[in-house]
Structures are given as C-alpha cells and as structure tokens.
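Budget justification note: compute hours in this period were largely spent on complex prediction jobs such as the one shown. Inputs:
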Amino acid sequence: MTPAIKSIFKSISPFTEEELNFLEPYIKPVVLRKNETLIAEGQICKHIFLVEQGCLRNFYNNDGSDVNLNFTMEGQFFTSFESYANREPSKIIIQAMEKSLVWIINSRAFPKEHEYYTTFSTFIRRLFIRLLLTTEEHHNMMRMNTPAERYEYILKNKPEMIQRIPLTHVASYIGITRETLSRIRSNSY
Amino acid sequence: MTPAIKSIFKSISPFTEEELNFLEPYIKPVVLRKNETLIAEGQICKHIFLVEQGCLRNFYNNDGSDVNLNFTMEGQFFTSFESYANREPSKIIIQAMEKSLVWIINSRAFPKEHEYYTTFSTFIRRLFIRLLLTTEEHHNMMRMNTPAERYEYILKNKPEMIQRIPLTHVASYIGITRETLSRIRSNSY
DNA sequence: CGGGAGTTGTGATATATATCAAAAAATACT
DNA sequence: AGTATTTTTTGATATATATCACAACTCCCG
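Corresponding output:
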C-alpha cells in the first residue's frame, strides 16, 4: 500500500495507520494493458477497485453499440455495483482505456468479528454512497439538459475528460452520437 | 407499529419482535391529504419514509415543468436520497398523489451505542441499496429503450402504475410528452 | 345533477438529432 | 518516416418526437 493510496483511503474515512496496515492483505495491485477487460459481461463482480494510474471505462452493450456509463481515473473508486451488491452477473463491462494500475479491494474477505470491522464497514458504506451519488448526479444532469448543455457541463465540471478520453466515448457518455458532439463543438448548433 | 408494517420491516432484515418494539419511538405515522407536500424543494430531508396506504410522487422542477423520478406505493420506502445522505437542501419534491398514510422513520436518532444498533444499521444499509438499485434500474431502462419500449416495460413490470397514476405523470416518468404517450397507446407509432 | 377543473386524445407543423456516407485529421505501429 | 488504423469532421437526408392548438372525455364537488 503506497502512501498515495493510504491518503486516498484516509480521505474517505479516518483510518489510523494500524488499521491501514491491517488492510494490506485485502488489497492487491494489478496492471492492465490498454483495452484489457477487468470485468466482462456476465461475470460476477466481487471486488471494489481503486485506480492509482490510468483510466477505466464502465459501459454496457446495447445491441452492438457501447453505452458509456462512467470513466474512472486516478484516485477514484469503482465497481459494477448491481453485480457486487446482488452477487449477480454483471451487465456492465469494465475495461482499461490506457495502461492502468488498479488496486483490487477484497472487501468481502474482511473478518466481520474483527475490532476494525466497524471502521471498515463505515468506509465501504461511504464509498457506496459516493459511487451512487455520482451516478445519480449524472442521470439527473442527463435528464435536465439538452445535448449542448450536457457538453458544456462536462467541459466545466470534468474538463480532464475532454482532454483524455476520445470524443466518441464522451458522446456516448452524454447520450448523443459522435457526429452531433462534433457539431456542438464546432458551434453548428 | 401495525403488524403489516412489522412484516415489511422483517422482509428487509430479520428483526426479532423485541427489536421491532424497540424501534417504536423512532417511527411516527402521518396522514397526508391529496396533493400535500411532504418534502419541499430546498428543505433538508432528515428521514426515511414508508408508505402504508396511498401513493407519493418524487419529482423535481426543471424550469417550470415537473420531471417525475419515482412513484411510491403501499409497502415501499422512499426518501430524498441526496438530501438525506449529504444533509443538503433537497432538489427533489415529494408529494402525496392521493390521501396517504406514511410512516416517518427517524433513523438518525437511533442510539449508536445500543446493542440493537448493528441490526438497525444493516437494515438501513439494505434499504439504501434497494432504493439506489431501483433508481439505477430505471435510468438504465431509460437509456436502453425507445419511448414505446419504455411504455411496454412499465406495462409489463409496473402495471399498477398505469392503472393508478395519471398518464401525464407516467409520460414524464418515462421521459416523453403526454401527447407522445397518448400516441404510443393508440399505436400511432 | 350540472358545471368546471383536470386529464386524455387528435391533428398540423416544426425541429433537433440520428443516420448514412465519405473526407480529413490524428495517432499508433513496424 | 511512412503506412495503417482510429478518431473527428462535414454534408445530405430521414425521422422521431416536441410543440402548439383545440376537442373530447372523466370525475369530482357543490
């Protein structure tokens, strides 16, 4: 567990140094190549993940075409929530968009009887609330705004997304075709 | 706490009879008249609610026009999640569509040190997961389907909604105008 | 029981965005 | 560096749904 990762954990819940050390065995790093799949469609997602370096894409497949739900970058957590919570096959696919370093949190293996369990479960609860508020915010944004406004919103609130992620994927993230996004950007609309 | 309410609680988490009795002081019924507002825009939502009788509507206002997010009926829980979780003013308005009997759960007042706290907090966690999976399911359904398919989905999976809720509101719930819904129903599309 | 508000249906028209097609630009690969 | 692949842009056209206007129906409530 690198210092950077420790401080990300601390930013969610006030862990002591001992508690973080105790977490060590439940956390493992993995390196993903560009376009490598972390969670495939139909697979059961049993972990929560944290990006140390790189960029991941959460999306589902709607007869043939991708629908992007989220992009996760440095310092952010993610999972296939429905699959994780209900222990059912994931509808969501998770893929690295670049070569990425990801930490796998084996949250289910944490011993329930341990004295640190309360701290840990508070952490997990907060994580979930964060994840779900993020998706809810995105959905509301989608429903309240026109395509052009949605693009403006991303530009203003998530500018790193425009710099780093191919516009084709951004377009699907804001629910329009890449052609329409291109026209919005060139001010045709 | 009526037997019906007790059994709804038990369906979420395995409460003992004593635990349910202990909950009593944290739960209060309220009767709402038709169109009465339970949570106004800007108000901080501090409770979780359970419908015993009637029907409630969660919606927000997008310059002048309502956008319906959810309808809650007998046996279902609801809250303004963002407001509750972040203790911030609610963007969502909650209103009774009919005369309704609603139980107010004062979850924040439950004593943290009490021996029943673990059971109670598991219950709350499960409730939240349910609520959030419901909204996520709805959002995904909206993104995957055409207006006609969305109507078919409601007809198949939530038929009571069509029977009980004015079509104007259902239309906004599935993200179309009432005219378009009317045409879908008459098979013009 | 009758009038008025609220709800639903129908028609005509406008418009935003998808779709199809292909060129141009950027990026990755050997 | 030079070719191949991917990404973005531009253009022409189609189409679904919104919008506007108003008629028909439903159902409370006095």
